[in-house]
Design a protein that fits this description.
The chain has one domain. Helices cover about 35% and strands about 25% of the residues. It is built from two helices and two strands.
Length: about 80
C-alpha cells in the first residue's frame, strides 16, 4: 500500500516516475531483506560432526568492491566465526 501511495504522489514528470520507481524498488528490497534470517532452530554444541561443511572457527577478511558511474568503492569486512 505504501508503494502505491508513493507512486500516486508523483506527477507526470518522467524523472519523478523514475524516482518513484527507485523508491518502490528500495522498499521492496528492504522488506525482503527484513524477512530473511532469524529462524531460531536447534543449535549443536561441541565440535562439528564428521563430514560437516561448517566454516572453521577463526577471523576472516573479505574485500567487497562496488563500481558505479566509473567510481570504485572498496570496503574491507571482517567476520569472526566462533
Amino acid at each position: 500500500m505504501l508503494a502505491v501511495g508513493v507512486l500516486l504522489g508523483f506527477g507526470k514528470s518522467r524523472r519523478r516516475w523514475r524516482d518513484a520507481a527507485l523508491v518502490v524498488v528500495a522498499l521492496v528490497a528492504i522488506g525482503t531483506a527484513s524477512g530473511c534470517g532469524g529462524g531460531g532452530g536447534a543449535s549443536a554444541s561441541g565440535p562439528n560432526p564428521p563430514g560437516s561443511t561448517a566454516t572453521p572457527a577463526g577471523t576472516y577478511s573479505v574485500l567487497v568492491t562496488a563500481t558505479a558511474n566509473g567510481i570504485v568503492h572498496n570496503v574491507k569486512l571482517t567476520a569472526i566465526v566462533q
